[in-house]
Give the backbone structure.
Amino acid sequence: MIEVEGLTKRFGRKVAVDHLSFEVRPGVVTGFLGPNGAGKSTTMRMMLDLDNPSGGSVRIDGKRYRDLAEPLTHIGALLEAKAMHGGRTAYNNLLCLAQSNRIPERRVSEVLDMVGLTAVARKKSKGFSLGMGQRLGIASALLGDPEILMFDEPVNGLDPEGIHWIRNLMKALAAEGRTIFVSSHLMSEMALTADHLIVIGQGRLLANTSMAQFIHDNSRSYARLRSPQREELRDVLAAAGHTPVEGEGGVLEVDGAETEELGELAARHGIVLHELSAQRASLEDAFMQMTAESVEYHAHAAAGGGPPTGGAVPQWGPDRFEGKGA
Ligand SMILES: Nc1ncnc2c1ncn2[C@@H]1O[C@H](COP(=O)(O)OP(=O)(O)OP(=O)(O)O)[C@@H](O)[C@H]1O
C-alpha cells in the first residue's frame, strides 16, 4: 500500500505537484494518468525518495521510504531513465544491486529468467536494445520480490510482443496481491491494463476512481440504429420516451437505452433494422471529454467569467496531451 498525503513539489515558482493525496491499494493495477508535465514523474520520484517534497508525505507500507531497512524488498521501480552500468553484464548489474540489498545471489538468475534475459545474462548491458533494457530494468525492480511495484512509462518504445508481455506481467503481479502503480501515455494500453485510475493535471488530483467509473462519468455511451424506415423508427422511439438524435449518414443515436430494449421495440412495430449497436466510450473519449471541460472553463475564465465550481479546475488543453512514445 502506498499512501500519498498532501504531497507538494515546487521548482522555484513552478508548482509541479500540488497537494496530492491518494492511496494505491494492493491486488489491482492502478494507472497514473495525466498530460505531459502534469507531475507524474515528479510524484513517482518523491515516492522513491529521489526528490524531496516541498510539503506533504509518502508512506510505503506505513513508513517513509528512507526508514525502510531494505527498500528493494518493499518497493521495486522502473523509472524512465534507469541507471544501469553499461560496462557490466546484465547478471553483474543485478548482482551488485542484490549484494547491496542483502538479496541472495540465486534471485539474480530467477529474475533474469522471469524477464526472458537468461540467454544474454553474460552480455554487457550497453549493447542491449531498448526492449532488453526495459526488461533488465524490470528484473531489477523484481529483485527484492517486493509487494509494491512502480513502473513509469514501461511500454515506451517497445514492440507489440514486449507490450503484451509487460501488460500480462503487471496483471499477474497484481493477481498475486501486489500493489502495482503504472504511468503511461498510451491510453489504449492503459485501458487494457489498469483496473483503477489516478488522474492528475497541473499537479492536482482530477480523478481517483475505477476505470469503468471514469469512462462512465466522463463520456457518452449510446445505441446506434440504422433503418430504411428511419422516420417511422424515429416516431416509435419518441413515443416510447426516447430522444433519438440524427448522427452521420442518417443513423439515429439514442442515449441511455439498452440495445435489447430497442431491438424488441423495433420488432414489435415491424421496423427493419440494418444496424443496432451499442457504442461504448473508450478511455481516450473520456479523456477528451475531461480535456474539453477544462478548456471550456478557461475560455469562460479568460472572458471574465468566474470558475463554475470554486476554481478547482486545472488547465488541461488538448495541445498539452501529446503522447511521447505513441
Ligand atoms: N528538476 C526540475 N526543475 C524544474 N522544473 C521541473 C523539474 N522537474 C520537473 N519540472 C517541471 O515540473 C512539471 C512536472 O514535470 P513531470 O516530469 O513530473 O511531469 P510528467 O507528468 O511526468 O510529464 P511527462 O509525461 O511529460 O513526463 C513540469 O512542468 C516540468 O517542467
About this structure: The chain has two domains: 2-211, 222-279.
